[in-house]
Amino acid sequence: MNTLTAPLRESSTKREILLLLKKLGSTTIQEMSEHLGVTGMAVRKHVNALKKDNYIQSSTIRQHIGRPTYIYSLTDLAEQLFPTQYDVLSLELMEEINHMFGELFVDELFKRRRKRLEQKYRLAMTGQNFEEKIVTLAKIQDNAGYMTSLVKIHDDKYSLEEGNCPIFQVASRYRQACQCELALFESLLDSRVERKECIADGGTKCSFTFENI
Fold first, then answer.
1. Of 120, 127, 115, which Cα lies nearest the Cα of 180?
2. What's the number of CA atoms in the CB half-sphere (13 Å) around residue 63?
3. pLDDT for 127-140, tens place per residue?
4. Could you give the 3-state DSSP secondary structure of residue 56?
5. What pTM was computed for the model?
6. Helices 13-24 and 29-36: crossing angle, nearest 10°?
7. Is 110 exposed, middle or buried (0-12, 13-18, 19+ CB in 10 A)?
């Protein structure tokens, strides 16, 4: 089972909560309880679990009298649980571009994407050392839906795993996407980067080692 879509495949209160938030946009524990016909305590238990997994986020509404009200909504990661045609559309557009302008033009598109991401990531890494840059990179990738896990092997070596590939359909057809990701990491960290495993190659995850040189 795909871990990213598992919460929606379960026949459970968690699934109903996610579907309800998708429909309503945002709501409270009490409103969820009323809609689902379960106790507020049960709803809160599932909401806390979904928050821990980064599927739900909360915001606070201050009131003139009484306690603040907590409003819950889906995160960007949760939005990926629901069916879309983005992957199909992206792949179809890439196929058309390749047909019209050729493989070299596709190469240039991925290089331009890498440069754009590099500029964006460098801003977030300004003034950081090797370790801090890696931690920042892992957070950025995780926020982008890559479901990252970072492990420190020793002071100058780290392992990064990406449990999900948000651009899997495109990367499977156009390996330039994977090549540009590797080049992006090398440039940002100014280190030796080795890819150990790749989802687009049939792996269960994308795995990298970073070594400061």
1. 115
2. 7
3. 999 999 999 999 99
4. strand
5. 0.62
6. 110
7. buried
